[in-house]
Amino acid sequence: MELSAGDATRLGLEEGDLLEVATPRAAVQARLRISGIRDGVAFLPFHYGYWDGAGEPRAANELTLTDWDPLSKQPMFKTAACRVRLLTRDGQPSPAPTTTASAPVAQNLPATCGGAEAEVEEVLV
Question: Where are the alpha helices (DSSP H) in the chain?
């Protein structure tokens, strides 16, 4: 879950806090990444939902409406108003990547890496 530094300060939240993100449709839990996103916007990936075996809702699409624009037929599940609430503060960092658009505002976080399964060896022939 990404929030801006301004919103995190206003809400009294810190990097890695476990949050509940709720809409009238559902609620999910996610760790906070304080990023360069603009104030007033909350970002939650729409991947990795309950269908992947975890059993608990945790993807943005589970929070949004299943409806379509009547003209373009585009799904309207990319935006929704939400409520953000602190659940726990235990000092764990967010697992969001540190080297992408989700880069943290804080400079003192350990870099994320993919582990052994993500390592490859490139061979040029």
Answer: 5-11
Task: Say what the pLDDT of residue 80 is.
Answer: 81
Query: For the whole model, what pTM was predicted?
Result: 0.75
What whole-number distance in Å separates Cα of residue 36 and Cα of residue 62? 25
pLDDT at residue number 2: 93
Q: What is the pLDDT of residue 106?
A: 84
Q: What is d(CA 1, CA 31) in angstroms, rounded to the nearest whole number?
A: 6
What are the residues whose beta carbons fall under 8 Å from the beta carbon of 102, sequence distance 6 or more? 2, 33, 35, 96
**For residue 18, what are its two tokens?**
């476990």
Beta bridge pairs of residue 29: 20
Q: Residue 13: its pLDDT value, please? A: 97
pLDDT-flagged residues of the chain (< 50): none
| Selection from 57, 64, 8 nearest residue 32 by Cα | 8
For 15, 99, 103, the CA distances from 107, given in Å and listed in that order, are 11, 11, 9
- Comparing CA positions, the residue from 27, 24, 5 lying closest to residue 85 is 27
Residue (of 17, 41, 42) closest to 94 by Cα position? 17
